[in-house]
Each structure stands twice: as structure tokens, then as C-alpha cells.
Amino acid sequence: MVHYDKSKYADLGAAVTSLQWDAITDLVVMIEVGESNPAFDSVLSHISQIANYSSGNTSLGQGNLPSFPIRSFLPVDLSKFYRYNGSSPAPNCYEVVIWNVFKDPISISQAQLDMFRTVYGVNLNAQGNYKMVDNYRYIQPLNGRTIYYSSAVTISPMRALFIMALAISSAKIL
Ligand SMILES: *[C@@H]1O[C@H](CO)[C@@H](O)[C@H](O)[C@H]1NC(C)=O
Ligand SMILES: *[C@@H]1O[C@H](CO)[C@@H](O)[C@H](O)[C@H]1NC(C)=O
Ligand SMILES: *[C@@H]1O[C@H](CO)[C@@H](O)[C@H](O)[C@H]1NC(C)=O
């Protein structure tokens, strides 16, 4: 889930090219193959209307995606997450993103995942086609950065204060 401050940036592209380290805040959820997850059905039931670059149809068309609760895509426990300063995962990979990666994954069934893998995107993947698979960026060096972990159990009071301050400053972005 990608966030930027609409009062500062006209659109996502403007946030990216601002080159500010806090231009974008991403909330990231790991997805593990297992139980079927009804949250995905709100998107999957409209998957055929979603952009299909290969067939030259990149519009959502009529019958826009009905609204659905974003919360249903987040893990139950939001208090456990990792935070670090990073970059946009797509070229030019500008360092403009505060990454917040939740510790607990959510689930997706293999059948649901297979449906997502029928979708075509706008970027070439590692296999040289437009299927939205294998389009991840390789792990990057830490480059002197610190990765923070939110758990109150393992952190000192000073560090907890620091993380709270960060949470407040990124809440403004959200
Ligand atoms: C996208 O287009 C390709 C090629 O026409 C087709 O095989 C595929 O099923 C389409 N995907 C969706 C989700 O409609
Ligand atoms: C693109 O797909 C949408 C949804 O399926 C459809 O309504 C629209 O007519 C298509 N447009 C073109 C140019 O094929
Ligand atoms: C990200 O970088 C900014 C600017 O250097 C710094 O103030 C902030 O503490 C960093 N945040 C994290 C999570 O490392």
C-alpha cells in the first residue's frame, strides 16, 4: 500500500522524482501460500477487467472495482513491523520510500495466486515478457542503514521513543 502526501505532491510520479527520503510510505504485507483468503476475492472477481497490457487493453473499463476494506489485506497484529529507509522497487529505484513491513504474513491459496499470475503489467519481467511474475528487485546491500523492529519486547525505552517519533512523523504522510 503506497502512500504520499497529496498536499505536497501532485501525484505519485511527483513524489518519486522529489528525491525526498520521506516522499512515500509503503505498508508491506508478506503473502504466504496456504488457506484461501476471502479478502482477495474482492479483487479476483474483477480480475478480467484489470489492465491487460498484452491485449492492449490497459483500462479498468466500466464497472469499476467495487470498494472493499483495505484492512482485510493487513495481518491481525499491526504492532509488529520492520521499518527502514529504502527505495522505489522499480527503475529508477530512487531512495524515496519509508518501508514498513509487517511481521505476520497473510495467506493466499495457490488457486488465487494462479489467477493473479494471469495478469499482464506494463513492465518487462526477468523472463522478458509482460506477465506480472518475477518482477521483484534483488536484495540490496544495507549501505549503512539501520532496520528497526517495532516489538516492545526487544527494544530499550530510548529506542521505543525514537520509533514512536518516526511513527508520528510517517502518520503525517499517511
Ligand atoms: C490477458 O490477455 C492475454 C492475451 O490475450 C490472455 O491470455 C489473458 O487471459 C488475459 N488476462 C486476463 C486477466 O484477462
Ligand atoms: C477493455 O476492457 C474493458 C473491461 O473488460 C472493456 O469494457 C473495454 O471495452 C475494453 N476496451 C477495449 C478497447 O478493448
Ligand atoms: C531515514 O532517514 C532520515 C534522514 O536521514 C532519518 O532522519 C531517519 O531516522 C531514517 N529512518 C530510518 C527508519 O532509518
UniProtKB/TrEMBL annotation:
Coiled coil: none annotated. One of its GO terms (molecular function) is zinc ion binding. SMART domains: Carb_anhydrase. Residues 1-151 form the Alpha-carbonic anhydrase domain. PROSITE patterns: ALPHA_CA_2 (PS51144). GO terms for cellular component: plasma membrane. The keyword Transmembrane applies. Pfam families: Carb_anhydrase (PF00194). Keywords: Membrane, Transmembrane, Transmembrane helix. The chain crosses the membrane at residues 147-168. Belongs to the alpha-carbonic anhydrase family. PANTHER family: CARBONIC ANHYDRASE. This is Alpha-carbonic anhydrase domain-containing protein. It comes from Strongylocentrotus purpuratus.
